[in-house]
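Before relying on records like the one below, remember that each one covers exactly one chain. Contacts with other chains, cofactors or solvent are not represented anywhere in the record.
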Amino acid sequence: MSLKTLFYGLAAAVTLTQPVKGCDLALVLAMDVSGSVNASEYELQVLGIANALRDPAVADALLHGRVALAVVQWSGALEQAVTVPWMRMDEPAQINRVATRIATMPRVFAGGNTAIGEAIDISTDQFSQVRDCAHWVIDVSGDGDENEGYTASTARHSAWSRGIVINGLAIERTETGQEISDYYRQVVATPGGFVITAQQHGDFARAIRVKLLRELRPPMAHHPLRNAERTGAQLAWLP
């Protein structure tokens, strides 16, 4: 065997044994488009998300973690839609494409009620498509408490039992309010999750950037069930 043949054989063996970098985080952005959100406030949300994704610090974290991102719009019962299916953040051009898609994304519901439980349920269902991602997170953003369906607590429990952490972005109605933030901490966020407050929709862009950086930078949102899945371990609900 020649030295050249041996060299290429060893190089191929090393290449085959190199682990493929997986997805660190799968993140669903579940955004409120219920009747309490007017047209200009919807615009503030989609532009806020798009600009946050293009932020250099956020974009770097997305690429470093090979993050999978999806967007859900939600309103009342039976009013939920996946408007951006899973997209992998594996190159800068992809981030820009996703940001542009979100910025120009049509609103699919208007004038409906607020069914947070159904929003969590449809978001939970999406993770069967991204089983390779190490961490699963739903980010629920909204400006009101649940007034239809009343299944938020049950949906939160179901998501947690499947290894999903839920964070919240609470949009307050006043510049000093904490009512929605407190509700999200009590009813929406899971153990290990957190809630970021936006003081009215005009503060959404700042809040979504802060929230994304907190979610994307290590340590990532941790759920013990994701480490126990292969052993069949069962975890009790933590209130």
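The chain has one domain: 31-151+162-224.
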